[in-house]
Amino acid sequence: MGLVTIGMNHKTAALDIREKLSVDKDESHQILKKLYSMPVIDEVFLLSTCNRTELYCEIDDMQYVNNISKWLLKQKGLSIEDFEDNIYSFSDSSVVRHALNVASGLDSMVIGEPQILGQFKNAFNEANNAGTIGKNLDRLFQYAFSTAKEVRTDTKIGANSLSIANVAVSLTDQFYDDLSEKNALLVGAGETIYIAAKNLRKKNIKNIFIANRTLENAEMIAKEVSGKALSLKEIPEQLKYSDIIISAVSGNIPLIGKGAIETSLKHRKHKPIYIVDLGVPRNIESEVKDLPDIFLYTLDNMQDLIKKNYKTRKEAAIDAQHIINTKVEEYMKWRKSQSAFSIIKLYREDCEDIRKDCLEKSLNQLKLGKDPIDVIDQLSVNLTSKLSHKPTLALNKAGQTNNRKLINLVCDIFLINKKK
């Protein structure tokens, strides 16, 4: 049995590579089921966000790690030969450390960003619903969730909040001194768009338009920020009036093409548009960046921009590692104890059988009118004899072969003081 993580993230792969391995919710369920059906895999969990796609597995044989990597890539039409430099894998305690770092936001593009914990919990619920979580991964992720909470409570990792959505909105200051006469088009209705909308409203922006596939979801956010909800088909017309565009939706094809932006620019008469594409795969055609008066940022562009204000968080990350070190040790101790659990259970069952057998014989003696004191005395003798029988046999065998290691082991197990 072994614990393993296989994945690709923003540290090992650029956006155009990461998006090829990105997995949506429906596909995630299918992949979990297929992996769980494999004899070598006992438990499996899949996390796929804009910055990472990772598998966490409990497997019978660590030799199969490379096979699992190949299988995952093959599901996406990719080959290990082309992407082996982008894939990483961890085992045992390194998996625990990695999971705790990810959940705590310490492995994120923005150190300490809180969204990853919610994404982690959602992925955990999906795997739970798929029936692919067992006691080992369940325990691991409970540790991850509680550790993330402790890190956020006991350190300054959350100081000067810098989630991707926060950064996307803060960058508007580089283009516009005043947002009171500006319009923003936000595409999507997830947490990132919600945060961006709230921050834009705090900056007193004139209008916020929320476009989404499901209009009801867009309306929920629009209502909170005094904005207006749009359907996706209304985007081309709205582009003409949009000074700021922030997009964060999942999908296989871009929602906004170069042609649509070109048309809007003709109407805008050279007024610039600040665009942030937070989608994986990307929501906006990359060629848009070549157009005049367009300032297009993607997740990769933002890596350099979010390094400001990191001093406090980096110091907090050091403090957080002390917490994580303790939690990793605790989990690994629990995990090691599980390897002896089945033996302990068998031993206790054996002792229980002996107890019942001795008790039955004693009760029969009492029914025959035997003296209770004699019966109890004999019961204690029988229990002592039967419970010590197997350890005595093991010690005798060890003594005959002068197996000091086994003798010492038996003494340790039964807490026998050899100096008496």
CATH superfamily of the largest domain: Glutamyl-tRNA reductase, N-terminal domain
Terminal CA distance reads: 40 Å
Average pLDDT, all residues: 90
Oligomeric status: single chain
Q: Number of DSSP strands? A: 10
CATH topology of the largest domain: Beta Polymerase, domain 2
Blueprint of the fold:
Elements: E1 2-9, H1 15-21, H2 25-36, E2 41-48, E3 52-59, H3 65-75, H4 80-83, E4 88-91, H5 93-103, H6 115-130, H7 135-154, H8 164-170, E5 183-187, H9 191-202, E6 207-211, H10 215-224, E7 228-230, H11 235-239, E8 244-247, H12 258-268, E9 273-277, E10 294-298, H13 299-305, H14 311-339, H15 341-367, H16 372-400, H17 404-413
Report on this structure.
The chain is α/β, with parallel strands linked by helices and 420 residues long. It folds into 3 domains: 2-158 and 312-339, Beta Polymerase, domain 2; 164-305, NAD(P)-binding Rossmann-like Domain (Rossmann fold, 3-Layer(aba) Sandwich); 348-413, no CATH class. Helix content is 54%, strand content 13%. It is built from 17 helices and 10 strands. The strands form 2 sheets. The protein has a 6-stranded parallel beta sheet with strand order 7-6-5-8-9-10. α10 (215-224) links the parallel β6 and β7 (228-230). The longest helix is centred in the last third of the chain and has 29 residues, at 311-339. The chain is elongated. The two termini are 40 Å apart. The model has no long low-confidence stretch (mean pLDDT 90).
